[in-house]
Amino acid sequence: MKGARKVGGRILLGLAALGLLAGGIVHAAAFPKAATQIGEAKLTPFLSGSFKALWLIDSMVQLLLALLLTLVLFRPAIAGRPTLVILGLVPLGTAVLITIFLGGFPAIYLLAGCALATIVGGLLHEAGATSTLEPTDH
Predict the structure, then answer these.
(1) Taking the CB of residue 66, how many other CB atoms lie within 10 A of it?
(2) pTM (2 decimals)?
(3) Closest by alpha carbon to 13, among 60, 71, 63, 64?
(4) Could you tell me if 28 and 53 are in contact, meaning their C-beta atoms sit under 8 angstroms apart?
(5) CA dist 8 to 46, 72, 74, Å?
(6) Which of 13, 28, 59, 72 shows the smallest number of beta carbons within 10 Å?
């Protein structure tokens, strides 16, 4: 059972990493069109720049989370359960806030799925004997 838990956790973390990688790439690729529409809107330069920066920040965060999850797949000892659960809260919070302000659409469901896969995968994660993030039984 312990082996199935470990494999299941790794599969979920891998799926989350793939989903975040794809989401980050697609989101970044959509930036030119978004930037054009932002430029055509009657916004102050500050708001226009803020929207553009936030667009690319969201792409970057997804790509960095994908990288971190990939690192954990290859080096499980670098992150413990609490760290992975907290990492999963980042895309979950993003998905919730976007849903509140924009409503639901397919990309948000993918982001929320990646968040849940990260959280559940993190809860199933076994960092290994070298991790100092897990409590020890003494």
Answers:
(1) 21
(2) 0.88
(3) 71
(4) no
(5) 46, 14, 15
(6) 28
